[in-house]
Amino acid sequence: MASFLEIENLTKSFGGLMAVKKINFNMGRNEMVGLIGPNGSGKTTLVRLIIGMLKADSGTIQFNGEDMIGRPPWDIVKKGIGMTHQVVRPFRELPIIANAMIGCLGSGRKRGEWIKSVESMAMDALEFCGISDLAKEKASILSHGDLTRLEIARALATEPELLILDEPFGGLNPYETDLMAKSLKRLHKGGRFGRLHSEGPAMLIVEHKLSELMKIVDRVIVLNYGELIAEGTPQEIVNSPKVIEIYIGHQSRGDRDAP
User: Fold this and answer.
1) pLDDT tens track, the chain, 259 positions
2) Is residue 65 part of a domain?
3) Would you say the C-alpha torsion 44, 45, 49, 55 has a positive or negative sign?
4) What is the dihedral of CA 232, 234, 240, 245, to 10 degrees?
5) Does the residue 31 lie in any domain?
6) DSSP states of 65-106 as a string?
7) Nearest-angstrom CA–CA distance, 254 and 248
8) In a 3-state reduction of DSSP, which class is residue 110?
9) Which domain holds residue 53?
10) Are β-strands 3-14 and 66-67 bridged in parallel, bridged antiparallel, or unpaired?
11) Any idea what the CATH number is for the domain that residue 197 is in?
12) Dihedral through CA 4, CA 239, CA 165, CA 26, nearest 10?
């Protein structure tokens, strides 16, 4: 399986704190990969390095054969990497469709191309996420679950080949979580946004609700104190003594993401 995301010896420190230490992993174009670890394990730093919000101290990030190190976030979006954020910050006084249209502006189209298609592209993304009926309403009316859907719609509007999701199940009730999981799986199996054609995006999913995550991903990467300490199928990770020991230790200290 050819990798289209390749990370080698990626390292980032903040002062004397090593947040990410010589991380190595690859992703294939057709994969859904979970990224887990206790609080402070380096998950957020890692995804921010991938999308250009942070600059690595050393190491490489290759995407579709191109070096991503040093590129600004908007250029990385144009290359095909989109991301949703755990803390959703919509333009609350703008219509919901306007929020999604803003995502379209980062898709790399030439000006003449997106002027005619940007609204329909945004509406497609909203429809896929199940909130197109609210398109003309202000974003301020949305529930937490619908704000998460809007965040995904905004990311979809950038036409990503790789979609990074930061806690897409956060704050959702069990019913909403189940719907979100099914929607992500459906999106992955067959996207219909711009350059995706018949392929949905690959996904790297940061999540604390492990039981739901394990149902939809192909592979799981585990970080602890900035190091990659385990990698495998969901079943292999669930049964890994090293992973169990780490999570039990954090549970005893009261960390909210311990199973």
Assistant:
1) 457 999 999 999 998 899 999 999 999 999 999 999 998 899 999 999 999 999 999 999 999 999 999 999 989 988 999 998 877 778 889 999 888 887 666 555 444 455 557 777 788 888 888 888 999 999 999 888 888 888 888 888 888 899 999 988 887 888 888 888 888 888 888 755 444 445 789 999 999 888 889 999 999 999 999 999 999 999 999 999 999 888 766 554 555 444 4
2) yes
3) positive
4) 120
5) yes
6) TEE-TT--HHHHHHHTEEEE-SS----TTSBHHHHHHHHHTT
7) 10
8) coil
9) 3-90+160-252
10) unpaired
11) 3.40.50.300
12) -10
Q: Is residue 104 part of a domain?
A: no
- Structure tokens belonging to residue 79: 């290359």
Domain count, the chain: 1
Task: Indicate the residue type of 108.
Answer: G
**Non-local CB neighbours of 5 within 8 Å, separated by 6+ positions:** 26, 27, 50, 61, 62, 63, 162, 202, 204
Joined together, the tokens standing for residue 66 give: 């191109």
Q: Would you say residue 95 lies in a domain? A: no
User: How many helices (DSSP H) and strands (DSSP E) are in the chain?
Assistant: 9, 10
Token pair of 84 as six digits: 């949703």
Q: Which two tokens stand for residue 132?
A: 């197109």
